[in-house]
Amino acid sequence: VVKNIGTGTYSSVKLATEKDTGRKVAIKVSRRTNSREMAKKEYDTLKSLDQKTIIQPIEFIENDLKDESYLVLEYFAGMTLDKYIEEYGHLNEDETANIAQTLSNCLSYLHSKGIAHRDIKPQNILINDDKEIKLIDFNISKEGKSKC
Fold first, then answer.
1. Which residues are listed for ATP binding in this entry (predicted)?
2. pTM above 0.85, yes or no
């Protein structure tokens, strides 16, 4: 583990480096039984998706001795959209339109798979220097029949 990169209601996220490959990954650490169940559900949901603007899962590990679970995710070098705006000010019109279109396409994809994210907010959108985005935090997403 290299450093802590985020803390949420149910978990914390740490930046780590895989020993075998040297690849950077994000590890979402969940404690408490219900949080661990949510993390497993999030892993299963993410595993069923294949879209470049959705964070990709790598592995799910449970540690019963520590009563923790570890959701290993791809690492996306950037920051949350709210922190980006806080640090750099507003986005210009073209950047905003591009992000809105990308997010709209992402949500259309999710709905075509019968999945509702249910927590779309700037804190759950990562953005990098190239203004590419990734949707994260699927722990309260819901699966069902799509009505879209």
1. 28
2. yes
**Rg, Å, the chain Cα set:** 16
Q: What is the DSSP string of 91-139?
A: PPHHHHHHHHHHHHHHHHHHHHTTEE----SGGGEEE-TT--EEE---T
CATH T-level topology, domain 3-143: Transferase(Phosphotransferase); domain 1 (1.10.510)
Provide the annotated binding site.
Answer: 28
Give the residue extent of every domain in the chain. Answer: 3-143
Do 28 and 46 touch, CB atoms closer than 8 A?
no
Per-residue confidence (pLDDT) for residue 114, from 0 to 100 = 96
Please report the sign of the dihedral spanned by the C-alpha atoms of residue 42, residue 47, residue 49, residue 50: positive
Best CA proximity match to 72, nearest among 63, 80, 81, 84: 63
Q: Of residues 20, 50, 82, 119, which has the active-site annotation?
A: 119
Binding residues for ATP: 28
Cβ neighbours of residue 104 closer than 8 Å, sequence gap 6 or more? none
